[in-house]
From TrEMBL:
The keyword Lipid metabolism does not apply. This is Phage integrase family protein. GO terms for biological process: DNA integration; DNA recombination. Residues 68-251 form the Tyr recombinase domain. InterPro entries: DNA_brk_join_enz (IPR011010), Integrase-like_cat_sf (IPR013762), Integrase_catalytic (IPR002104). It comes from Paracoccus homiensis. Signal peptide: none annotated. The keyword Iron does not apply.
Length: 255
């Protein structure tokens, strides 16, 4: 095919070719080829009503899968995972697990944490603050005593000497672990205590502590601030709060 010329096809036929990074099937009608942007690759434009449908070559990633909100871990699950990681002597995973629960950060922010974000003056901070990747807004989180101890042990590992990132990658081309690797670790953690890995994910770690806070206090505003949400509606949907939850809280209050 010569540069600058559009491919041709017979009427009613289909032809597949690459456009940018995506391979798309283009349906050709009336002897004219229509581009992905709805423009004819030729002399005239085809009426919008006659534009052919564009079908992706690959099926949707979630086709045929049951995809829903991931469950938070219960306190007994948290302790069971901690004990297993402690016995195994897996200092990195224990520190990562503990900080994931405490920080309530999205996976993309958790894996990018730097040493300076949580470590200063030779010790782990009691509170830290970062700018969220999704919203570009700051969010603060606490680092409890148990988490500080596990982080201190992790900082003493040879791999951490001179490391900029808190969770450095195993290979030189990776500055830190990826969100996909973090997701695999979460699946391993929940599987190790007999839970169904399809029901849990990285957002389970983010929900775990705030779900318990909401269950004990019913304070949605506090949960909103801890999650770094800008709208209360987002927090309500994220926690899956419904009328039954509201009534249960109301019943626990006597006047």
């Amino acid at each position: 095919m010569e540069h600058g010329k559009a491919p041709t096809a017979a009427k009613g036929s289909e032809q597949t070719f690459a456009v940018g990074w995506l391979d798309v099937v283009y349906c050709v009608t009336n002897m004219r080829l229509v581009s992905r942007l709805g423009e004819e690759v030729g002399e005239q434009n085809m009426p919008t009503a006659n534009l052919p449908a564009i079908r992706a070559c690959r099926p949707a990633w979630n086709k045929g899968r049951l995809i829903g909100q991931k469950r938070p871990l219960l306190p007994k699950h948290v302790w069971a995972i901690r004990v297993r990681l402690e016995i195994a002597g897996n200092h990195r995973d224990l520190a990562l697990f503990n900080l994931a629960v405490d920080s309530k950060l999205r996976g993309c922010d958790l894996v990018k944490l730097k040493v300076v974000d949580v470590y200063a003056s030779g010790q782990v901070k009691e509170r830290a603050s970062i700018i969220q990747s999704k919203t570009q807004r700051p969010v603060r989180f606490e680092i409890t005593e148990g988490t500080r101890k596990s982080l201190s042990r992790w900082m003493e590992e040879p791999l951490m000497v001179g490391s900029e990132f808190l969770w450095p990658g195993r290979f030189h081309e990776r500055l830190h672990i990826s969100t996909r690797q973090y997701a695999r670790l979460v699946r391993d953690w929940v599987s190790s205590i007999g839970l169904d890995p399809t029901s849990y994910g990285t957002h389970s770690m983010r929900r775990t502590k705030v779900a318990e806070i909401y269950r004990k206090t019913g304070n949605l505003r506090a949960v909103q601030l801890l999650l770094g949400h800008t709208k209360m509606d987002s927090t309500v949907r994220y926690l899956g709060v419904n009328l039954e939850d509201a009534l249960a809280i109301s019943e626990s209050v006597e006047i």
